[in-house]
Amino acid sequence: HVDVKIYLVGGAVRDGLLGLPVDERDWVVVGGDPAQMRASAYVEADQTFPVFLHPDTGEEYALARREVKRGEGYRGFEVDAGPDVSLEEDLRRRDLTVNAMAQDGAGKLIDPYGGRQDLDAGLLRHVSEAFVEDPLRVLRIARFAAKLGAHGFRVAHGTHRLLRQMVVEGEMGHLKGERLWREMMAAMRTAQPWRFFEVLHRCGALRVLIPPLSAAMGEVSVHAGAADSAPVAALKRATASGADASCRLASALLACVDSASEAEALMSQVRADRGTAQLLKRAAAGWPLYQAARGDVDALLELVGLWRGFDRDADLDAPLSVCEAQAAQPVVGRYLRQALPAARAVSAAGLREQGLRGAELGRQLAVDRREAMHAALQAAGLLT
């Protein structure tokens, strides 16, 4: 009979040692089996995987397991979760040393692979050569670079070589678009989301996963002081402005599409959610007008019409923020904030009272809105 022992593992240990907020806690159960877990009222979370939910907290408790690669991609593993699997074996199958640490009930750190040392050195380093067996780890290490970049973390040279090896061997072809989308959006919510794309770009994975973005980011530079590519610069501006994950991603991708149709094709390829796809399409359609709208009332009027901004409940903030992030001198927002209230104050009802209908009403409404916008911009000193 093996004593059952339970350990806190993974991200909760890592973030706790870094002094970061711990959002969720995962546990590993050594010496247990499914029957014991069910007898203790744990609920099976997955019929094909030895993971259970705690009856009170809902936190995940996984049986310690070893994995053997039998097939292709990140699903091609044979899992052994017998009670003889040790904690060290379970930790060895994890991706990075900083994620391969555990704590026992007394808070004692169990660190067989040097995770604490790499934590102090700011290194994202693979635990073992088995790292290359799971292509999903390319996306995960890019996301960790984004999450921990603000704390000085970088990908270890040896691990970068393994990432390149996985790309050369065609492992990116096994990644599902839905999984790329999930990891990418998680990265967009981090402190330095651009690092997600930089890591993928440097190892060659981005060229396979999102070719237009890779092309827009250009040649990989080895110089620390090199200027940011347009997508990275836009993503940094969007992040600094406090934009949400969808706006951040659309800001980066706007640099690699030239039309709404290209935006639609790209978002379909990366399995984007409907809201983010619509946002990029709106921004891409409006970008030429946005560029012309500084000091040009006609372009500004057309941009507002394209974005349906004359509807009082229309939200222009999201597409505007995407274009502002892309622009070197984001000033069109100032023009809109001055001119749009004046244009919205123009009443179609008043024109109908004058007997105008149909196309004639539409033409006069556009003329009056233009005059109102022009007057508001002139009064604010934004037109010469």
Structure write-up:
This protein is of the alpha+beta class and 384 residues long. 51% of the residues lie in helices and 9% in strands. The chain contains 19 helices and 11 strands. The protein has helices at 11-18, 34-39, 87-92, 115-121, 136-148, 157-168, 177-188, 194-202, 205-209, 211-217, 230-240, 245-253, 260-269, 274-292, 297-306, 317-326, 332-344, 348-353, 358-379, and strands at 5-9, 26-30, 43-44, 51-53, 60-63, 66-69, 77-80, 102-103, 109-110, 123-124, 154-155. A 7-stranded mixed sheet has the order 3-4-5-2-1-8-9. A hairpin with a 5-residue loop joins strand 8 (102-103) and strand 9 (109-110). Helix 7 (177-188) packs across helix 12 (245-253). The protein starts with a strand and ends in a 5-residue tail after the last helix. The mean pLDDT is 91.
Concise overview:
With about 375 residues, the chain is of the alpha+beta class. The protein has helices at about 10-20, 35-40, 85-90, 115-120, 135-150, 155-170, 175-190, 195-200, 205-210, 210-215, 230-240, 245-255, 260-270, 275-290, 295-305, 315-325, 330-345, 350-355, 360-380; strands at about 5-10, 25-30, 45, 50-55, 60-65, 65-70, 75-80, 100-105, 110, 125, 155. A hairpin with a 5-residue loop joins strand 8 (about 100-105) and strand 9.
